[in-house]
Amino acid sequence: MTKRGRCLCGETRWEFEGAETWSCYCHCDDCRRNCAAPVVAWLGVPLRNFRWTGATPRSFASSKGVQRHFCATCGSPMGFEADHYQGGMHLYAASLEDPSEFAPTFHVNYQSKLPWLELHDDLPKYDGTLLHAPEDLADYKTG
What we know:
Order of helices and strands: EEEHEEEEEEE
Strand content: 35-45%
Largest sheet: 7 strands, mixed
Structural class: mainly beta
Distance between the termini: 14 Å
Radius of gyration: 14 Å
Strand order of the largest sheet: 6-7-8-9-4-3-10
Helix content: under 10%
Number of helices: 1
Number of strands: 10
């Protein structure tokens, strides 16, 4: 099955084949500031199943080994790649063609959750990143 997504203006688009490797909410300061949002919804896919369509996004090195991709026309955040998540593309769930299909399965960086954000779900909540989850959720070799 092919899933697709796009930016606000529609210039930058992406698609991937198959299932995502994981789907979650992130509460870290970097993600919040990048999107100006209290929490960010993500899905991870193997790079080998992913491709940009439409205009190629611009990229910003937000820290060593980290690239954040965004539309060069409208500025919409589109994706995230990091050396420590080799072989994977992290995509903003809200950029899906149909974001209602997104089904998060856990939270990361929960210790950074803003105190005024109220959440009432039973999803697992990890204080650290994907790299500190009980199973290796960052492994894109098998997905």
